[in-house]
Structure of DUF1318 domain-containing protein:
Amino acid sequence: MKNLLSKSAALLFCLLLIPASFAATLQEAKAEGLLGEQRDGYVGLVVADAPADIVAIVRDVNSQRRQRYEQIAQQNGITLQQVQSLAYEQAVEATQSGNYIQNASGAWVRK
């Protein structure tokens, strides 16, 4: 099981390298404090009144992540929730200082 989780972690890291078309805008939105990494392994809105283009980025990135998480879970014989948990851990490690992540209680905090 531990070996499967290690392989999954490597795959998840690759997933975090989203397509270049989203990367700059996603990183900019994170740097501006509009988006952050949620505990469920998805990107979330830090502010309730985010512009429509930011909401669209969240929807698109999360759709891509969901598809990939399902593939990883199936390929490794683990649950979607396990993949999401690993993805969150990887995302926190990859998050730049000053960007938002969700803490254990679900509150947005700066890393």
Q: What stands out?
A: Residues 2-110 form one domain. Strands lie at 35-37, 43-45, 100-102, 108-110. DSSP finds four helices and four strands in the chain. The chain has one domain: 2-110.
